[in-house]
Write a structure and sequence with these properties.
Blueprint (H helix, E strand, L loop, with lengths): L3 H8 L22 H23 L15 E3 L20 H18 L6 E3 L10 E3 L4 E3 L4 E3 L10 E9 L2 E8 L7 E8 L4 E3 L7 E2 L1 E6 L5 E5 L2 E5 L4 E2 L10 E9 L2 E8 L5 E6 L4 E8 L1 E9 L2 E8 L8 E8 L5 E2 L8 E10 L2 E8 L19 E7 L4 E4 L6 E9 L2 E7 L5 E6 L4 E7 L4 E7 L6 E7 L7 E7 L1
Antiparallel strand pairs: 1-2, 3-4, 5-33, 6-7, 7-8, 8-9, 8-10, 11-12, 12-13, 13-14, 15-16, 16-17, 17-18, 19-20, 20-21, 21-22, 23-24, 24-25, 25-26, 27-28, 28-29, 29-30, 31-32, 32-33
InterPro entries: Beta-propeller_rpt_TECPR (IPR006624)
């Protein structure tokens, strides 16, 4: 491999420098005239200053940065940064130094004008610093009403996946920390007491990919994920997994309505989806072997709604699906508008006559070979559906992207959150007549969930930024 002197010389079309004097403190000297050394030094210094001028020129631009500059940390030695130059060196400097300076100049030119930005990924700042966010349609102002709230300090690769509110001083969030792509993390439960978030005690030896969470009227907590079901009061915990379920069964969500606890999930071996209900001391099967995916459940007002998607054998693709049951009744699939490639991620009911479900159409969860031409690009569209107790309708909403969570305090106060096509966090609001759209966070948040706070107009949202990196970080947002 050529040494640095040869690299520098070849880059500028000159013969490699082979003579000159070493540093003054070195005992070994090489041959060469003073004039030759002076020419080497002069050429190297001209190359160095030429490289600096080229890099600082406006025509040599770096690659575009991420939407929020505070969410990446540029290298302190990045090309083009201002530096203090050392004083002029004496004529006794060696041509070895000249070769080094020349090589540095070559590297500066190649790095400064390569069109690539050298950055190190870092966790997000406490709050997005950008005041505007680029969407696929236009530049839209970020709503200043959404604020990032600091929670307990968690380990790397932390994420929050669900949030539940019973009142202004009774808000819970659940997730995990210290996980990885091939395994779950340590379960985390946090509670907002009106002033700060505090962490609940949990068995730190149990690791799961947490997917669902709810809180009962007495403050008891239900947590599900992977093959686990966890129940407790924040201090003492039990693990009442349904009996006779195969090891391939995984749980996706749980919902509590008084003494009724509904647990949903599916079988990784392809045996279909299922629903179980708590019978006071154990879970009993209510629905099994459903050919579809159960994504979320809500149990309220004595009734249950399960949402997800239905799978078909032919090329008609997936369809959004809703299953409904009253207490003690049979689970039945509801008749929905036909939406090719549609799927539902979350459901919320303010009453049996006011039920909202959200998700998307197309994108990563759609099978492209069966989608309409308008959706073959893979760009998702938001999907919002409303049930009035007798039928379900698709509701048009502004913009693109997909939705992951929905909440409501009444028919004229509905919120849905998700990501737009540019991967910024969006929040859609329905006032009973019209939908409006605002941006809450400058980056996409995985596992994004939102809830209203009873008795207030506040919202809490949780998720994870950079969940697929070593710097994944939990995010808590509040809108007042």
């Amino acid at each position: 491999m050529a040494d640095q002197g040869e690299l520098g010389a070849v880059a500028f079309g000159e013969p490699a420098i082979a003579d000159g004097t070493a540093w003054p403190m070195a005992s070994r000297r090489r041959g060469g005239t003073a004039e030759h050394r002076d020419r080497n030094v002069a050429a190297a210094m001209l190359t160095y200053f030429g490289a600096r001028a080229l890099i600082m020129n406006r025509t040599c631009r770096p690659a575009p940065s991420r939407p929020t500059s505070s969410q990446v940390s540029p290298r302190l030695d990045a090309p083009g940064r201002d530096r203090k130059l050392k004083p002029a060196l004496p004529y006794s400097i060696s041509s070895k130094l000249a070769r080094v300076v020349t090589s540095v100049a070559v590297c500066l030119i190649m790095g400064g004008c390569s069109g690539k930005e050298d950055v190190r990924t870092s966790p997000p700042a406490v709050a997005p610093s950008a005041t505007t966010i680029r969407s696929t349609a236009a530049t839209v102002a970020r709503s200043e009403r959404w604020k990032v709230i600091q929670g307990p300090r968690l380990m790397a690769t932390a994420e929050l996946v669900d949030v539940v509110a019973k009142g202004p001083r009774q808000v819970w969030a659940a997730g995990s920390e210290g996980g990885a792509e091939d395994r779950g993390g340590i379960v985390v439960v946090e509670r907002w007491d009106g002033a700060r978030w505090r962490r609940s005690a949990l068995n730190r030896d149990r690791e799961i990919l947490l997917s669902g969470f709810d809180v009962g009227a007495t403050g008891d907590l239900w947590i599900v994920g992977d093959h686990e079901v966890i129940h407790g009061d924040g201090q003492r915990w039990s693990y009442p997994r349904p009996s006779k379920l195969p090891d391939s069964s995984v749980f996706t969500d749980v919902s509590v309505d008084g003494d009724r606890v509904v647990l949903i999930g599916g079988d990784e071996a392809g045996e279909g989806s299922f629903a179980y209900e708590w019978a006071g001391h154990r879970f009993e099967k209510r629905l099994a072997a459903v050919q579809g995916d159960f994504a979320a459940v809500t149990a309220r007002h004595g009734q249950v709604w399960v949402v997800g998607n239905e799978l078909r054998d032919d090329c008609s693709n997936i369809r959004p699906a809703v299953w409904h049951a009253v207490r003690g009744g049979k689970y039945t699939r509801m008749l929905l508008p036909d939406v090719v490639g549609g799927y539902l991620n979350q459901v919320w009911a303010t009453s049996p006559a006011d039920v909202w479900a959200v998700g998307g159409v197309g994108g990563k969860q759609g099978e492209f070979e069966c989608l309409p031409e308008s959706q073959e690009s893979g760009q998702p569209e938001p999907l919002v559906m409303h049930g009035d107790g007798s039928s379900w309708q698709r509701v048009g909403v502004p913009g693109g992207g997909s939705l992951t969570s929905v909440t409501a305090s009444g028919p004229d106060e509905v919120w849905a959150v998700g990501s737009d096509r540019g991967d910024a966090m969006i929040a859609l609001h329905f006032d009973g007549r019209n939908w409006t759209r605002e941006y809450a966070y400058a980056s996409r948040l995985s596992h994004l969930a939102v809830t209203t706070v009873p008795g207030t107009s506040d919202l809490w949202a949780v998720g994870a930024y950079g969940a697929d990196t070593d710097y994944g970080q939990d995010v808590i947002l509040r809108r007042r």
